[in-house]
Design a protein that fits this description.
The protein is mainly β. It has seven helices and 53 strands.
Length: 996
């Protein structure tokens, strides 16, 4: 698309600009200063810290690795290249990120999103915890990097090819985060950094500067036999994350007579310009709005490590890692809902017809509402991990390692309202509402009926509301045993080991809701003092849309005061229409969904490492095999069904006890995961690689859940229901990689890589028809057959019901009517036939997806000038794409997340000054598939960092993120079907770091 092509052009312009900036005098630079470089006898410069040292170590990690591995190393103790770990990872070839509240959150590697990548901490599988937005029971396995500060990280390794000795679970990659150890660098070392952050996205007139404090200290004692390391980070951020949105109905063909647009012959047809026809696809708006979001984030990280080395052959480690991330979001918005009745619209041509504008008109008698919605979410993700490691290298050829950890991650609300809330008020009396799609940002305009002012607080009424309460808890116990036999010669070594992982997950959800959308009470119930006015255009800068076209002002509310008033008036939390509160003085709901999943995986492995000369050049061949056996037990809370009743001619209901109990399902699967890696150096400093291997990624927790639920309404011929499937096989990928690398200077290289992945075991929906819970069908049993025998085959359902009411009074409940015209329920009996329920369940389908791509990278240091650059570009494509020109009724399978990415980085590191300017770009990509697609548009961001050693060991540093304020935009089938538009903002950090 044109935006994407423009993005590529911008990429290279930004790259040239970045290098030009570095050449300007007075530019400050990256973060910590380094001492004077040492010089070896051969003249090579030894860089001991800073950007160049980090790049050299990352280069060595890549060059010396088995298979295709990329990485980032800390520039100094307590100093990672970016304060956000995900922001650092996006600099790696083939890695792109998704942002949440303006910060890097999750990663995509080679087109495979966060659920397809495994994150480990020092080789240990870590629990993951996220609330998935808080409006449903959490199901995701994704790792949220926003929970971690980068200050306590030593190295991040991205394994792009499978290995037998690496934990399974990622088909995009396995990302290993390594933390520092005190005996790796004996002696007293450390650093302390204090900084302030200014985030220009704040919605308040005066945005405060928020504090960030970090420190790391490491020391060793008793002739370096004992070491202790402590790290700690505290970060606070106040920001804004404003969004304008449009929700859409399902895509239809122009010929679909059930569609929302009027057909020929309907008087409203004349109000449509260029109506979509035939097979043209169109979609109409369902809702739209614009709002103000205020965010406060507080992050605390810490680690304590104790190492002991009683002998040169034995090293023990005990470590504890903690992280806590609290995020509070307050939102106020104005919104409208479309009834799609009296509409006026205009459309483009093409296979997918796009709206130019869409208007709906209302009569005064309709009392159409305009909503003012207030939301509050305050959630916390907390991680605790304690582990131990013992390494033993006795005399001889063998070495051994035992590692174990107990880790827990938990996400839950921190207030009495829940993980996600929506409290609506409204002014009634809209005359029309229009969305103009001719601008970059969709422009919503609202006209009220005569005499009604949209900014008249005295007209505001309380309407519907919802309070959602989610919980996610993941506990992992893991034990690993690793060994190596050093043989020498052709068989250089043999690696062997076994891993046992016990992963236990709880996902729970409940909600309170009041569907009083027509008004919970009169406007006079709510005092005007509850509402304040906020301006809108100044909250949406840089979006290529004239601010005068936007809604100028909206009402905002203090959420706690509003909810308190509504509770006093309407008891909306203590006596809701739906759901049960946990107790008095709370809006937290009791869980109606409560799922417990336990995965146990046993995985032995063996790998032979062969070293030889081929044509006189050094070469290596690694052949490994990992066997995995996984057992899954899944229990879920479901309502207890006790019976059935026939309530009308063709309607039957399931009878519930009012209580819930757990249903349990089990499954198991096994995998053989081979891996082969070959590399050769045909020339000095040149390495060629080839790899082949199998990798897996496990299904989401929602698909594995053991709950079996049935719909309460069923028909004479049966009912419907759903359940999870803990027997689902994991996604499996067969991977091929080729790479050519030339390391022509100590911190410079060029590489070209090709990869191909063939993935199977995608998840679809299957159906099975069977009895459930012993429920019987009162419309299929002895009473029914007796009625048919007495009345004849032509008897209607109502005739049969009346016969049973008359002749079987002990098994019916008559609620009204007269003989021959009774109303009531006919109860199911044990002798009736079982109800046949069609149960939908996740199943592995026969879809295969092939993903392939190229990775290009150049890292070049300009001799001893201190200047350097990094350029990389990744091309990713697949054979399964979403077809925008088919309606939502057609089920589609497509891969999400596939996109090209690029980085242009310029740096300087010399004489106590360091600097980095980086431009990161990601092309437009499919971010969601299903009945309707969702595309995230191309995005490019410029970041910069700088530091100056003002005196020995003391540095003044600066970091700027998203310096040009790049916003974000998403759409459906074409770019006029915009779903989200959000401005971008820069944020700046200035601080002081002291090293010792």
């Amino acid at each position: 698309m044109t935006r994407e092509h423009a993005g590529k052009s911008t990429l290279w312009r930004a790259g040239i600009s970045s290098l030009a900036l570095l050449a300007m005098p007075g530019i400050a630079a990256a973060q910590d200063a380094t001492g004077a470089p040492e010089v070896e006898a051969n003249g090579d410069i030894v860089v001991t810290g800073g950007i160049r040292a980090s790049l050299r170590e990352s280069l060595a990690l890549k060059r010396d690795a088995q298979g295709v591995v990329d990485g980032i190393t800390a520039e100094d103790m307590g100093k990672f290249p970016d304060t956000n770990l995900a922001e650092s990872l996006q600099r790696i070839t083939g890695v792109s990120i998704d942002r949440s509240i303006g910060e890097g959150s999750t990663v995509t590697v080679r087109g495979f999103g966060p659920n397809y990548n495994l994150v480990t901490l020092s080789g240990r599988q870590m629990p993951t915890s996220t609330l998935d937005g808080g409006a449903t029971a959490p199901t995701s396995r994704l790792f949220d990097f926003a929970n971690l500060s980068s200050d306590g990280i030593a190295v991040v390794e991205v394994y792009k090819t499978g290995r037998a000795d690496i934990e399974s679970g990622g088909i995009g990659s396995t990302i290993n985060i390594r933390t520092p150890r005190p005996l790796d660098k004996p002696g007293l070392h450390g650093s302390v950094a204090v900084s302030g952050m200014y985030d220009s996205s704040g919605n308040k007139r005066t945005t405060p500067i928020t504090p960030e404090v970090s420190g790391i200290v490491s020391d060793s004692f008793l002739d370096d036999r004992i070491g202790i390391l402590l790290t700690g980070t505290y970060q606070k951020r106040k920001a804004g994350n404003n969004e304008a949105y449009v929700g859409w109905k399902n895509g239809r063909t122009g010929s679909d007579k059930a569609g929302e647009l009027a057909q020929p012959g309907d008087p409203r047809y004349a109000n449509i310009t260029n109506r979509p026809t035939g097979d043209q696809i169109y979609t109409v708006p369902q809702n739209a709005g614009i709002g103000i979001n205020d965010i406060e984030r507080e992050r605390i990280n810490g680690q304590a490590v104790l190492q002991f080395k009683p002998s040169d052959a034995l090293t023990g480690t005990i470590d504890y890692t903690y992280s806590r991330n609290r995020v509070t979001v307050r939102s106020n918005s104005i919104g409208v809902y479309f009834n799609n009745n009296d509409t006026v619209s205009s459309w483009t041509g093409g296979a997918v017809a796009s709206p130019i504008f869409y208007t709906e008109r209302f009569k005064a008698s309709e009392g159409k509402d305009v909503s003012y919605v207030s939301n509050l979410s305050a959630n916390q993700s907390e991680n605790n991990s304690i582990g131990g490691n013992l390494q033993w290298k006795p005399e001889g050829a063998f070495s051994f390692e035992v590692d174990g950890h107990h880790s827990l991650a938990r996400s839950a609300p921190t207030n009495k309202y829940g993980t996600s809330t929506s409290v609506s008020t409204a002014i009634f009396g809209a005359a029309s509402q229009t969305i103009d799609f001719t601008h970059y940002m969709p422009v919503l305009s609202i006209q009220m009926q005569p005499g009604i002012d949209l900014l008249d607080a005295s007209r505001i009424q309380a309407t519907g509301n919802s309070f959602r309460n989610g919980l996610f808890r993941d506990r992992i116990n893991q034990v690993q045993f690793k060994g190596r036999y050093e043989h020498g010669g052709l068989l250089d070594s043999v690696d062997f080991g076994i891993s046992y992982v016990d992963n236990k997950v709880r996902s729970a959800y409940g909600y309170l809701q009041n569907n009083t959308w027509g008004g919970a009470g009169p406007a006079s119930d709510l005092p005007d003092s509850l509402f304040s006015i906020a301006t809108i255009p100044d909250k949406y800068p840089g979006l290529k849309t004239d601010g005068s076209l936007l809604i100028q002002k909206i009402f905002t509310k203090n959420f706690e005061s509003l909810v308190g008033s509504l509770e006093n008036l309407y008891k909306m939390c203590s006596k809701p229409q739906s759901g049960t509160p946990l107790g008095p003085d709370t809006c937290l709901a009791r869980y109606t969904v409560d799922r417990n999943i336990q995965e146990k995986t046993l995985a032995p492995y063996l790998q032979a490492n062969v070293k030889f000369d081929a044509f006189g050049r050094p070469a290596h061949f690694y052949a490994g095999l990992r066997y995995e056996k996984t057992w899954v037990d899944s229990a879920a809370l479901v309502p207890v069904a006790t019976g059935t009743k026939w309530v009308s001619a063709n309607e039957l209901n399931v009878v519930y006890s009012g209580k819930s109990d757990y249903t349990t399902l089990s499954g198991a699967y096994q995998n053989w995961l081979p891996s082969f890696d070959f590399d050769i150096s045909p020339l000095k400093n040149v390495k060629l690689r080839a790899s082949y291997g199998h990798t897996i990624a496990r299904a989401d927790y929602g698909s594995l859940q053991g709950g079996q639920t049935i719909d309460s309404l069923f028909r004479v011929d049966g009912g419907t229901g759903s359940q999870g499937n803990p027997g689902l096989l994991p996604y499996k990928s067969k991977n091929i990689d080729f790479s050519a690398e030339w390391y022509y200077q100590p911190e410079s290289y060029i590489s070209v890589g090709y990869f191909h992945k063939s993935v199977v075991n995608f998840i679809g929906t299957g159906q099975v028809k069977r009895p459930v819970f012993g429920l019987t069908n009162p419309a299929d049993g002895p009473r029914y057959r007796a009625a048919v025998a007495a009345l004849g085959a032509a008897a209607t359902s109502n005739d049969i019901r009346q016969y049973i009411f008359k002749n079987y009074p002990n098994s019916v409940v008559i609620t009204g009517g007269t003989p021959g015209a009774y109303t009531g329920d006919i109860l199911g009996l044990p002798e009736d036939a079982p109800v046949q329920f069609t149960v939908n369940t996740p199943v592995n389908n026969d879809q295969t997806a092939n993903v392939h791509g190229w990775e290009f990278a150049i890292q070049h240091g300009f001799w001893d000038t201190g200047l350097g650059m990094i350029l990389n570009y990744t091309i990713v494509d697949g054979d399964v794409h979403y077809k925008n020109n088919v309606p939502a009724t057609v089920n589609q399978f497509a891969l999400v997340g596939l996109s090209d990415t690029a980085n242009v980085i310029g740096y300087y590191d010399k004489n106590g000054i360091q600097a980095r300017v980086a431009y990161n770009w990601r092309a437009e990509f499919l971010s969601g598939a299903g009945s309707n697609p969702s595309y995230t548009e191309a995005y490019g961001q410029i970041d910069a960092s700088a530091s100056w050693e003002v005196r020995p060991r003391t540095s003044l540093f600066f970091e700027g993120i998203n310096l040009t304020g790049q916003g974000r935009r998403a759409h459906q089938r074409t770019d006029r079907y915009v779903t989200v538009t959000a401005p971008g903002y820069a944020r700046y950090t200035v601080g002081l770091r002291y090293r010792f």
